[in-house]
Amino acid sequence: MNGTVWSSANDSLKNRFQHRGVGSSGSNGMIFDGNEQPGTYYYYDSEKWDGTNWTVGEDAIWKRNNPGKGGNPEDGFVIAGGYTNDTQPPEAPPWDSSRAEEYA
Amino acid sequence: MARTIPLIKTYGAAPVAKTFSQISDINTARIRTNGFGSSNNSVLILGGNVTPKLNSTEEYNGSTWSFGGNMNQSLHSPATCGNSVSDGLRAGGDTGSVQITSEEYNGSTWSYGGNTSQARNEFAGCGTVAAGLIMGGRNGSQYQNTDEYNGTSWSAGGNLLVKRYYNGGGGSQSDAWIICFGSFARR
Q1: What domains sit in chain B, N to C, each tagged with a CATH number?
Q2: Residue B10 has pLDDT above 90, yes or no
Q3: Closest chain B residue by Cα to residue A64
Q4: What CA–CA distance (Å, rounded) separates A99 from A44?
Q5: A40 CB within 8 Å of a chain B CB
Q6: Which chain B residue shows the shortest CA-CA distance from A69?
Q7: What is the mean pLDDT of chain A?
């Protein structure tokens, strides 16, 4: 790893699109939310990256895609807004895009 | 007479597993938003695609959300860099047209930074204002390239293995990762 070249690494556990990631280094991070592809149901689960492998993380509260986020796995982070929908097909209201949650 | 001193073995506190829990709602509903911050007690989220598009931001201090400074542009789907609510940036995004601009936040005011190499939205960023990285995205066509920020201007970084948008990423400018559709790449 030289800071200029990208190389392939292990795939995540599931296909994700319109998700978010947090992490302050290449050896520690989390991804969460999103969906498999446009028009599919949203996810609320997370995956953890340890620099080598992805493992199942904790479940978030709400299914979302394209949320706001900030922080990192070590110090905690927040997810807020985005399309949130528990039961309806994605891209269909009602959304409650004011919901926020923390990982701590 | 010799005394026997008992040995006492001490252990550090067991790490507490983190979980997700609900916090107070943000003041303004936002979709296709993004943000930056240092922890669950210090986060800023910005913009969003509602009608009209948003230039407002909100900061979370661990208990409440309050409005931060307004961005110069109202937009959605930017990338963000920054590990502090008082030192972050957004790059690109969609105001109705996809943007080449970036803005830096100092904790109260947004000011324009350098322009990225090309207009892009729906992409990921990581790192800091002084050493930021944005990756992929699209503006009609999808992008494979990355841009690096030094606090003043953007320059070309290494290309991703494939074109990616609507991706997630993290890390630092020199030690980053990106993922989209389950296909992962590390720098």
Answers
A1: 7-186 (2.120.10.80)
A2: no
A3: B31
A4: 13
A5: no
A6: B35
A7: 88
